[in-house]
Design goal:
Elements: E1 3-7, E2 18-27, E3 30-39, E4 42-48, H1 63-72, E5 78-86, E6 96-98, E7 101-103, E8 128-130, H2 138-150, E9 155-157, E10 160-163, H3 172-180, E11 183-187, H4 190-199, E12 204-213, H5 225-252, E13 260-262
Parallel strand pairs: 1-4, 1-5, 5-12, 6-9, 7-10, 10-11
Antiparallel strand pairs: 2-3, 3-4, 5-11, 6-12, 8-13
């Protein structure tokens, strides 16, 4: 059964993705484009959330269509990859983080609507996603961490991912508020992906690559554009290595979705 991969800025394509076929599914939430094939010996489904040439900014990503399409094509687990800005000043540029918690207070999609698939009263699939711990699958996290060690790209085990709304970046005050909540790093796409996979009970984990320091975190000048571009290019290689080391073991491993979905039967 295939593993889903979602990549973002800097990683529109995965090298050595074999037998690639791009399909566009018509979902209840619009079209979802997925490339299916084989990656590192495992059946895989790849969504490039921003599209070729980074056509879609974070405010234009169709999260519900993407996750629904992965589910329809049989994804048994999903790995999200994101470049991110460090809120924790102890994180180094180029560091990897396999997140274990989520700060996503708004729980909103880019269009401002609530982040959920189920909006109709009485829909038997509606429910509460109840978390008995973090929002990321322990089994998927374990395989990601093991893959970072095997591939020589060791990652920080744990850290709170902060979802922020784009397309603008955050002010120093906003970042300071997130830091006070214990957020390690931020980007603009991981929150909806985690929640929507949770609603569909798909095991999901998120790995981040630090490309810059969030506004006000580092006392020095902002990360130069040339350095940011260099790190974006490097992130594509690092993500490809880690995914290559994770997919085949993950396809064989036991993993479960985070939490439970409590569905209330209509009276």
């Amino acid at each position: 059964m295939p593993i889903g991969i979602i990549t973002g800025s800097g990683t529109a394509d995965l090298p050595d993705f074999a037998d690639a076929e791009t399909v566009t599914l018509q979902t209840p939430f619009g079209p979802g484009a997925v490339t299916r094939g084989t990656y590192a010996g495992a059946d895989a489904l790849h969504v490039a959330r921003h599209g070729a040439g980074h056509a879609r900014l974070s405010s234009q990503v169709s999260h519900r269509a993407n996750i629904w399409a992965l589910r329809e094509l049989g994804a048994t687990a999903v790995i999200g990859c994101t470049v991110c800005g460090a809120v924790d000043p102890g994180l180094q540029l180029g560091a990897l983080v396999v997140f274990d918690d989520l700060h996503f207070i708004s729980n909103r999609l880019p269009d401002g609507s609530l982040c959920t698939f189920f909006t109709e009263p009485g829909d038997p699939a509606r429910g509460h996603w109840i978390l008995n711990g973090g929002p990321f699958s322990d089994g998927v996290r374990r395989e990601l961490l093991a893959a970072t060690v095997r591939t020589g790209h060791a990652a920080q085990d744990g850290g709170t991912y902060g979802h922020v709304d784009g397309p603008r970046f955050n002010t120093p005050t906003e970042i300071a508020q997130l830091a006070s909540c214990g957020v390690a790093a931020v980007s603009q796409t991981g929150g909806p992906e985690a929640v929507l996979c949770g609603e569909l009970e798909i095991p999901f984990a998120l790995i981040g690559f630090v490309t810059d320091y969030a506004n006000g975190v580092a006392p020095a000048a902002p990360t130069p554009v040339a350095k940011l571009v260099e790190l974006l290019d490097r992130s594509a290689t690092v993500f490809a290595d880690v995914l290559g080391g994770a997919l085949e073991p993950l396809a064989r491993a036991e993993r479960a979705a985070a939490g439970i979905v409590y569905r209330i039967e209509p009276a």
